[in-house]
């Protein structure tokens, strides 16, 4: 018991309230602060729709039976401290992080600190959890074959590559979050990175060009800091922290919460992963859970991109399960979850303690589940391969997504923000607007992005309905700020194009009256132009056909 709370029952250390139940082998909350009798296990209501579930050893158990559950008729202490209530919520709101390969700091137990593994990534990340500003956490699932029964997964002898990767971006005001999956087969450049050796010395690992993203970890001694630097180089988003797990984490965490409900559009019997599930809903844990997130030949076109969609469905379901009363009010389940999660986790030193993880959880809990959006980094087939097996970043769509994340624009509320921005812009740029089909504009590239004019014209014609847009190549000279030159008679076209491009009023340059004979306006892209579809000012717009899913909605894998 903490000395400052000695003798005060309402401020007891939560760890002191747990006892080992000899009948179940699980830690459980004391019925009251003074009693010593361990609670007896009981049967819980059937919450799985009658479907059989697996027990902790991998066998099946009857649906609805929860080992070690506290009897419904036994009341918990009425003097629960505020601290314990806060910790219960902390355990629930870290659901995403736990499932994707991290741990929720359910309680400030000193034993959990000993479970954590930490890596010092130097200046690749932040030294602490910031309470203001956006938050970026990179979740890494490696293909390292550690843990009993994992010999059949991943690459034999692998030191642990970045197999599953999710950049979890939380907005500065914590109202929304975007979880963006990064394909392991993405061809990219890995920058030079400084790693800390076992003897405390530093070693610079040389960068590599045009390699798979997954070798940003493990290859040539690269640590998670190298993966963090690679993500920042690709997206322009600074990564604050990383959380890393191996195959075993999916098995232990899914078991700790009593199984995760998934849905299949059709029955699956996969000979490679040994996944055998009927169509419709099933509750899976342990080996079945790992097989589900590893299967690639039974969904979509059997690509890694389709497997990513299945993983996102699994994570969303885990979030809903963990934020449910079924988990939050079950102290045995919460204890098992926290213990399993911290044992499975490797993190950077900036969050390398239960206290720091709790701070992170407190930040994450401010985001409503309905405002957490899953998506995959926009990519396309690698044009350098006759039969593509790898992918490259889609230069247009990816920049739109990255810009949205940098500007804290939620994919769940983007339309609302776009409308608000356009309304504000129309107040600044007062006057009528021409129809998109009537906009006549020449586009020139005066910025730093190669092919920007061509990409912008393609975007204007194909996605914005501006057929009379023409690529005029490079401008006579480089310019810092994008400009739109127009004649007085083209003011309605200029205002309409400014709305589409997200141009500030200062970008519009009206010519003299004798310019009325001009055939088209002149849009010159400057150094402030970040990509086709990315507004120069205001929130970014989501690509029209981007795949996305919300954490609060269940979907069936196809």
Q: What does this entry look like structurally?
A:
The protein is an alpha/beta fold. The protein has 14 helices and 27 strands. It has an eight-stranded mixed beta sheet with strand order 5-18-13-6-7-8-19-27, with helices on both faces. Strand 10 (193-196) and strand 11 (202-205) form a beta hairpin. Helix 2 packs across helix 5, helix 2 crosses helix 7 and helix 5 crosses helix 6. It starts with 17 loop residues before the first strand and ends in an 8-residue tail after the last strand.
Quick synopsis:
This protein has 558 residues and is of the alpha/beta class. The protein contains 14 helices and 27 strands.
Average pLDDT score: 76
Report the major sheet: 8 strands, mixed
Give the low-confidence spans. Answer: 1-20, 25-30, 32-109, 419-427
Strand order of the biggest β-sheet: 5-18-13-6-7-8-19-27
Number of contiguous helices: 14
Shape designation: globular
N- and C-termini, Cα separation:
52 Å
